[in-house]
Design a protein that fits this description.
About 35% of the residues lie in helices and about 15% in strands. By secondary structure, it is α/β, with parallel strands linked by helices. Belongs to the shaker potassium channel beta subunit family.
Length: about 325
């Protein structure tokens, strides 16, 4: 069963393996398949579910709402996000303005079939809206009982500090950041993680398997597998392209004996690795088939000793991306419309 961790400096516990439906629901799999995977997650002890209004242009929230219908609401932690364009993508259908936040939370709650979300997240930083406006709107959403806590995704260390200062002033619980993080992508370690630890903010990390590259199924010098994410432009193919270099894929293959010696599969090793970071509260994992859930859950509670962590670093060598400047390029400088 999945172990739980506190999220940030709060009393909220979340399952350290969290179910995310970014590229699966209303996209890769039909509704019946999505419902089956969610129920498998529940059976495995996953209580935390992450989505966003922009996933499949709001349809992913609808599917998750259907899948969780009938469950005891108090036993679940449901997260969603706001920022990216939704609906007809008009001039105010994006960003972190007060207008868009207020309209988006109501839409998300309706689609998810719940009166509140446990965590409401700014999906990116909005350079076109004053941060004071955004944080005041989030505070009002919390005070209206529509969200219990607030978080963000892919904010820089400086943005986290500024947001946390306003949150403290507004007396609103700001407890999480959701960045990309994996053995291959460690750009948050230099600045974001230390700032977060100081501020009482946890990481909920996405792509712990580097878009599937750390599963070992992508081989150097070979075509990408048919039907894989790398072939599907609707399912994050552009995110994986940077990892599909022969030097990266060759290094990843060197992880297989390490995983085997630990009694783990390569995906389990990848998930367990991110969970060794004490600032990580949860690893976001998706699934297109129920059996994938059982395999992923086996990474919960795994402790990797110092020798294993060192062996992983040696195997990957200099293909690991560590440059903290990458954290400054994720949020668009202008809203996407």
């Amino acid at each position: 069963m999945v172990e739980h961790r506190y999220l940030g400096n709060s009393g909220l516990k979340v399952s350290e393996i969290t179910y995310g439906n970014w590229v699966t629901h209303a996209s890769q799999i039909d509704d019946s398949g999505a419902i089956a995977t969610v129920h498998a997650a529940l059976d495995a002890g996953i209580t935390t579910f992450d989505t966003a209004d922009t996933y499949a242009n709001t349809a992913a929230e609808v599917v998750l709402g259907k899948a969780l219908a009938g469950q005891r609401r108090a036993s679940l932690e449901i997260f969603t996000k706001v920022y990216f364009p939704t609906g007809p993508q008009g001039p105010n259908d994006t960003g972190l303005s007060r207008k868009h936040i207020f309209e988006s939370i109501d839409g998300s709650l309706q689609r998810l079939g719940t009166d509140y979300v446990d965590l409401y997240q700014a999906h990116r930083y909005d350079y076109e809206t004053p941060l004071e406006e955004t944080m005041q709107a989030f505070a009002d959403v919390v005070r209206a009982g529509k969200a219990l806590y607030i978080g963000v995704s892919e904010w820089t260390a400086e943005q986290l500090r500024e947001g946390a200062a306003l949150a403290k002033e507004l007396r609103v619980p700001f407890i999480s950041n959701q960045p990309q993080y994996s053995m291959l992508w460690r750009v948050i370690e230099d600045k974001v993680v230390p700032a977060s630890a100081e501020l009482g903010i946890s990481q909920i990390v996405w792509s712990p398997m580097a878009q599937g590259v750390l599963s070992g199924k992508y081989l150097p010098g070979q075509p990408v597998p048919a039907g894989s994410r790398a072939t599907d432009e609707k399912s994050g193919a552009h995110f994986i392209k940077g990892f599909l270099r022969d030097e990266v894929l060759t290094a990843v293959q060197r992880l297989e004996p390490i995983a085997s010696d630990c009694g783990l599969t390569m995906p389990q090793l990848a998930i367990a690795w991110v969970l060794q970071n004490p600032n990580v509260a949860a690893a976001l994992v998706g699934a297109s088939r129920p059996e994938q859930i059982a395999s992923n859950v086996a990474a919960s509670g795994v402790k990797l000793d110092a020798d294993v962590m060192a062996a992983i670093d040696t195997a990957l060598g200099d293909v690991v991306e560590r440059d903290p400047q990458n954290t400054y390029t994720v949020s668009p400088k202008a809203r996407l419309a």
